[in-house]
Each structure stands twice: as structure tokens, then as C-alpha cells.
Amino acid sequence: MSQRISGVKGMIDLLPPDIAVWQALEAAARETFRRFGYEEARTPVAEDTALFVRSVGEATDIVGKEMYTFQDKAGRSLSLRPEGTAPLVRAYVEHAVAQREPVTRWWYLGPMFRYERMKTGRYRQFWQAGAEAYGVSAPAQETELIDLAMQLFRALGLDGIRVELNSLGDPETRGVYLESLRSFLRAHRSELCAECQERTEKNPLRVFDCKNPGCQAVVAGAPAITEALSDEARAHFEVVQRQLSLLGIPFRVNPRMVRGIDYYTRTAFEFLSDDPVLGTASAVGGGGRYDRLVKELGGPDTPAVGWALGMDRLFLLLQAKGVVQPARPVLFVAVAEEGAADAALALVSRLRRAGHRVEFDARGGSLKSQMKRADKSGAAYALVLGSRELTSGEAQLKPLAGGEPVPLRLDALESALAARR
Ligand code: AMP
Question: How far apart, in whole angstroms, are the C-alpha atoms of residue 284 and residue 162?
Fold first, then answer.
């Protein structure tokens, strides 16, 4: 008995023709990373669960509710990575990279996993491209990374993406702010959802992330973290803003943007789009400085900044623009009669070896059906091979978009196609 098994809820297939948009997105990301001197780092999709608990934070939604955690056969607790920063820091520490180079700049691209509620632009397996820079405490590092993201958006032709900035200050001074936020939230306890009542005590910053309209209304009146910065953190934040202006990158300071992850210090930022194709999933990326994380995960005291972009959301934006066309073959070879099939097979193989994208219909069939297939393939030219062509060594290169066929010698096809590519 046959049984149809569906894909996992929230985990989507990326198939042709959409894959062309994904490939364009990835190529633009790689090219932009190259220009900025970032190098690729690849880590496994699963890590020791403790890595995310320690770094992302136990009281965050990501760790508390959304992780795919399981035991392997030896009883270890592993989790599918919900984000890319902690795994890269783990690798950076494990391979003692700081001892080899004072500044390290890495990028990554891969699937992340969070058990979230599905909606447009929000999945349980989703793709992130990220960049991380270790070893620089100067504000120019944030500026460089924001510039990198903006240059990538520009390379993709996505010009409606804006930057929001905030400073979360330093852990030493954050305590004072957290206490004032906590007393404010306690005073509005009855207006908060049950979860935020709990967050008020455990991790009050997380109340800013709550989607509940009642909680949103409360935090709209909450004290702003930007009012409670140390002189140093404030000066740092001002330099980031000045440098962004210097580069002509518009931004808005949003004191309520605290990001859903615990490890951030000082500058945090998000990239947002109001394009309706994203529904309510308007954040296309986010990141910030995390100067304590490398040390917390057992490495030397190393400042760091990073961001991650949601590739699924960039895909939706790019797809809606309709500018990416799937690559098409240059030539379709059809056979006029059965006896020419082997010669056609050999010709196609020869042209492919020479680097041309060439198609044929391995099923054979009538010339009419082959020509239909040629049209559907989007090939620029078709060539019909029969005993006449094989005997004379000459054939007609027929432009499928219309126009006069061009006679040429079969042994000169490679160069003829190269000239037309
Ligand atoms: P985060 O660090 O959680 O802010 O994630 C960075 C970016 O990844 C977000 O701005 C989104 O664009 C994207 N992202 C996060 N979670 C999801 C998800 N479940 N599905 C699709 N994209 C996501």
C-alpha cells in the first residue's frame, strides 16, 4: 500500500523556479561579504544545548519555547541551532582563533530552527546569512557591519529597507535601568499578560518583545534605556550615529528596540521593511554588539559585533520585484528521425563539455513535441539533427524568439554558441 508523507510543518521546500531567486540572493551576499573582507565559516546544525542556554539566555522565547532539543543515542542533550552567533563564537573559542589573529571577520549562511507559529515570512526552518566581527571595540565596527548590510540590500535592488538603532548600554549600568523598568512594570502589573508579569521579575527587557497589544501599550510609556546610559556607552552610541550619517545611511533611534536575545551590549540594530509582502514579519535582519559573549563561552576577553539577515524575508521581497529570471539554455537539440538520436546525444554531450547549457528531449518522440519542449525550455536557439545534417555536417541554428535561421557547420557550433552567449 502506498502512503504519502508530507514535509514537516513550518519547514518549506525551496524549489525551481523560485530557487533562482534564492541563488541570486546568496550570490549577492557572497559578493558583498567578499568586498568587505569577511570569510565564510560553517558550523554544524546541532550543538550542545547548553551553548544556547548560556548565550541566547534561558528566559528568552528562543531558548525557553522554540528550540528543537533532543537526546542523541549517548544521552547528550543537543539542539538544532536557533541562530548562528553562538555556534560561531563556540568555534572561535574552540579553535583559539584569537591567538592567531587580532581581528577576525566571518560570515555564514545556513538554516536555523525555531519552533515558532507559522505565518508569512516566519517558518520553523528558516535561512539566515550572518556576519560577525571579533576583536574590535571601536564604534566603526558597528558602522562597517550596518554599511555591509545596506550595500547588500542595494546590490539586490531593495531600497525600502530602513535601519533602527538603540543602545542597550553596558551590563554594569544596565542593572540600574532594569530596576527602574521593573518598578514601572510592577506599577502596571494588572495591564500585563501573565507571561509578562513573570518576565517583569525574571527578565524585564523581554516585555518589550511581547506581541500582546496590552503589553505593547504599557511599554510605550516605559522609561527608555537610552536615558540611562553611562557616559562611555553614550559617547560610543553617538559615534556610531555620526559615522552612519557620514556614510549617508539614514537611521532612526528606537529606544524600545531591545532585541530578543540576552547577549547584546551597547549598540543593537534592526533592518526593517514595510513592504506588504512580508505581512507583519517586517524585520529582515538584526544584530548588535556582544562584547561579553566570547569570554562567557570560555574565550579571551574579545569585543564582537554581528548581525543576521532573514533570507526567507529577503526572498519574498526580491521575488515580489520579479527581477530575477531563471537561467535558460542557449540551445535545444531536436532529432528529426530516430536514427539521429545517438548523434544528437553525442553532440549535446560535446557542447556541454565545452561549457554550454544545452537541452534535448531524452524521450525522443515526434519533432513537433520536441519543438514544443524546446519552446518551453526557454532556449535561445534550436537545432534539428537528421540524416541530412549528419551527412552534410551542416545545420540551421534557429532563434526561438523569431528571426532567420543561421546556417553553420556542426563542428563550429562551440564557437558559434560562445559568440551568442
Ligand atoms: P533575530 O536575531 O531573531 O532577530 O533574527 C534575525 C532575522 O532572522 C530576523 O530579522 C528575521 O528576518 C529572521 N528570522 C528570525 N526568525 C525567523 C523565522 N522563524 N522565520 C523566518 N525568518 C526569521
Answer: 10
Q: Which three cell numbers stand for residue 222?
A: 516605559
Q: Which of 138, 104, 142, 150 is nearest to 267 (CA)?
A: 142
Helix then strand count (H, E) for the chain reads 16, 16
Question: For residue 285, which atom of ligand 1 is closest to its CA?
Answer: 10
Residue nearest to atom 17 of ligand 1 (CA): 122
pLDDT in tens, the chain (421 residues): 899 999 999 999 999 999 999 999 999 999 999 999 999 999 999 999 999 999 998 888 899 999 999 999 999 999 999 999 999 999 999 999 999 999 999 999 999 999 999 999 999 999 999 999 999 999 999 999 999 999 999 999 999 999 999 999 988 778 888 899 999 999 999 999 999 999 999 889 889 888 889 999 999 999 998 888 999 999 999 999 999 999 999 999 999 898 777 788 999 999 999 999 999 989 999 999 999 999 999 999 999 999 999 999 999 999 999 988 888 999 999 999 999 999 999 999 999 999 999 999 999 999 999 999 999 999 999 999 999 999 999 999 999 999 999 999 999 999 999 998 7
Please report, for the chain, the start and end positions of each structural domain, with discontinuous segments joined by +: 17-170+229-321, 331-419
Q: How far is the CA of 181 from the centre of ligand 1 (A)?
A: 26
* Ligand 1 center–CA 345 separation, angstroms: 47
- Residues with a CB atom less than 6 Å from ligand 1: 83, 114, 116, 121-123, 126, 128, 260, 283-286, 308, 310, 312-313
For domain 17-170+229-321, the CATH class is: alpha beta
CA of 284 to the centre of ligand 1 (A): 7
Q: Are 123 and 10 in contact (CB under 8 A)?
A: yes
Architecture of the domain whose range is 331-419: 3-Layer(aba) Sandwich (3.40)
